[in-house]
């Protein structure tokens, strides 16, 4: 992997905030298929197993680009008795039906935020995708439990990724300076700009001819 160059992408969030992705050259990465192993099901088989085991017809809509569920709705038997049990229940469900979501290792890939309960009594758990401790940008699954503790919906975006070299070839200081330099170009009030500390992420680009890549994420105000 070369450190000589990096691709820079700027997204203008509003008049005074820019988000920069400094993308490092990709290495050993791609879109993975379902987990290997003779006991693993296809997505259709996993959905059929879910419906058979719950006795409910589930509605599923897939992302067109990566063909993982964007939305899954149905109803399990009650899985939790209190909100503190929601994280473990969501992990158990995703582990049992990992083939439907094309998950390879749910316990290692999904980092859960604390469960929250809304004014209707529903409990929600957000599980962010990571690889080797590095966040996959914009990738997370959110599990929703009704007031009776049944899992009724999962929505979000999970990217099936092969392993990526997670050692950055460009340091934080250089990235921060570059982000400021790009933003300052042609700006009369450039002295008022400030940049956040760069965060290492996996940028799961899926556009034609593009591959997921390691990147630095920087916000300039």
Task: Give a quick set of tags describing it.
221 residues; alpha+beta; eleven-stranded mixed beta sheet; 5 helices; 11 strands; 20% helix
Describe the structure.
20% of the residues lie in helices and 32% in strands. The protein contains five helices and eleven strands; from the N terminus they run E-E-H-E-E-H-H-H-E-E-E-E-E-H-E-E. The chain is of the alpha+beta class. The longest helix has 13 residues, at 172-184.
Percent range of helical residues? 10-25%
Give the overall pLDDT as a whole number: 83
- Computed structural class: alpha+beta
Low-pLDDT ranges: 1-8, 10-16, 25-38
User: Overall 3D geometry?
Assistant: elongated
Number of strands: 11
Quickly count the helices.
5
Order of helices and strands: EEHEEHHHEEEEEHEE
Short structural summary:
With 221 residues, the protein is of the alpha+beta class.
Set down the secondary structure blueprint:
Blueprint: E1 7-14, E2 17-23, H1 43-54, E3 59-62, E4 69-73, H2 86-96, H3 98-101, H4 106-109, E5 110-112, E6 116-117, E7 123-131, E8 134-145, E9 151-157, H5 172-184, E10 199-203, E11 213-220
Parallel strand pairs: 8-10
Antiparallel strand pairs: 1-2, 2-11, 3-4, 4-9, 5-7, 6-7, 7-8, 8-9, 10-11
